[in-house]
Amino acid sequence: MSHQKITRIGPAHHIPRVAILIDTSTDWSRRVITGIKQYISTHEFWHLFVEPRGVEEPLEIPRGWQGEGIIARIGRLSMARSLWESRIPVVNVSAINIPDAPTFPRVNADVAGSAKSAVTYFQERGFHHFAYLGLIGLEYVARQQTAFVEAVAEAGGKCYVRGVQTHDGAQTPDWNLRIEELASWLKSLPKPVALFTWSGGREIIHACDAAGLRVPEAVAVLSGSDDFLCDLSRVPISAVQSACETIGNEAASLLHRLMNGHKPPMQPILIPPLRVVTWQSTDTVAISDLHIAKALGFIRENAAHQINVQNVAQHAGISRRLLEKKFKSILDRSPAEHIRQTQLDRAKQLLLETNLSIERIAEIAGFGSPDHMAFIFRNKFKITPLKYRHEAQGTTSVKAASTKI
After folding, report:
1. 381 has pLDDT over 90
2. What is the DSSP letter of 90?
3. pLDDT of residue 226
4. Residue 292 to residues 192, 199, 205, 280: CA-CA distances in angstroms?
5. pTM of this prediction?
């Protein structure tokens, strides 16, 4: 199908009317709707019916509404039956499987694919111990859990699983979750452990604090839901980023075909995740050496204070010479190189996410002066900090929006 925008001339042409029955309260929803809009912008125009709705608010066609197509996030049996009775072409963008519900053509996130991506991500960082924190009673979370456990087994590992109750059936743990019990479970796991969860993961950070466990050195936490709330955690949480705009675009494309009389596909169209967005909760490699683990944690927490290798050695409790030897053997780089890379990573993050001046970023990242940061930056990336910001800002999704299904 051509992606050239179609211009309609004259009032006689009938413009298709399409209902978007997707809540608008989350970034996931808005990004899916953005994908729908992107499709329309390169094809024929549609009149869209869409209203602001929360996640748990009922979504339904207004009484008397007449249209040619519907794109919906179908999460309830009553909604599925109502849409089926409308006899209008429908595309479902939810991965929720509803027992006894009518079957609609579907475009949704590849839940199992996100689990496999998580295992590969952890393997690349050297982890051999895995865990999954699931949400009890949610079928799609159980599906992701099964895929994660199977992927770990295929990699020759073992996965430790725990489930927690949800808050009123929502996609978050119950607010009354006993952090002490979760902390006890985390303490019982072999270390370092790579933990994957559907939830945002903030309760895991709380439990690690209660148990005296370092994140990410002892427990690396990866969320299967790239929720902006992950940023509210004391330790920003890494997440699997869903291709929401692609889901919306593909759903619109499929609906377009259905409205033109094409047959629906036999199987759901599964959209793989974009990538894993790395934040502090997984920004490590699996290290069993206690001295190196302590050194890495000290560097991560203090790199902005212009620390030196001797400071790191003292905190790790070993001589500078032994520290350098261990770094080279385990990480294949020197402590000084790791300090510098940590500072560069912080500078890049600030350049992308903020409008702070170069002078202020150099200070926050631990370079001391903007000239020194620019010199190091050019040597490493062959580009100035300011040019890096201009080229990257506006085109790079620094913090992906929340994943739902």
Report:
1. no
2. E
3. 64
4. 13, 30, 22, 17
5. 0.69
How sure is the predictor about 219, in pLDDT bands with cuts at 50, 70 and 90? Answer: very high
- Each residue's pLDDT tens digit, 115-147: 998 998 898 788 889 999 998 888 888 989 999
Bridging pattern class, strands 275-277 and 238-241: antiparallel
Determine the distance from the C-alpha atom of residue 191 to the mean position of all C-alpha atoms in its chain, rounded to a whole number: 24
Please tell me the distance from the alpha carbon of residue 29 to that of residue 34, in angstroms, as a whole number.
Answer: 9
Whether the Cβ atoms of residue 285 and residue 125 lie closer than 8 Å to each other: yes
Dihedral angle sign, alpha carbons of residues 26, 28, 32, 37? positive
Q: Which has the higher per-residue pLDDT, 187 or 402?
A: 187
Domains observed in the chain: 17-109+244-273 (3.40.50.2300), 111-241+277-282 (3.40.50.2300), 290-392 (1.10.10.60)
Amino acid in the structure at residue 305:
H
Tell me, what's the pLDDT at 167?
65
Instruction: With beta carbons less than 8 A apart as the criterion, state whether 142 and 134 touch.
Output: yes
Sign of CA dihedral 288, 294, 299, 301: positive
Instruction: Report CA-CA distances (Å) from 139 to 29, 144, 161, 167, 171.
Output: 20, 9, 16, 15, 11
pLDDT for the residue numbered 95: 86
Q: How far apart are CA 148 and CA 114, in angstroms?
A: 9
CA distances from 43 to 69, 89, 188 (A): 15, 18, 56
Which DSSP symbol is given to 270? E
Question: Of 394, 146, 402, 118, which is closest to residue 272 (Cα–Cα)?
Answer: 118
Predicted confidence (pLDDT) per residue in 25-63, tens digit: 888 889 999 999 999 998 888 999 988 888 778 888 888
**DSSP-assigned letters across all residues of 112-175:** HHHHHHHHHHHHHTT--EEEEEEETT-HHHHHHHHHHHHHHHHTT-EEEEEEE-BSTTSSSB-T
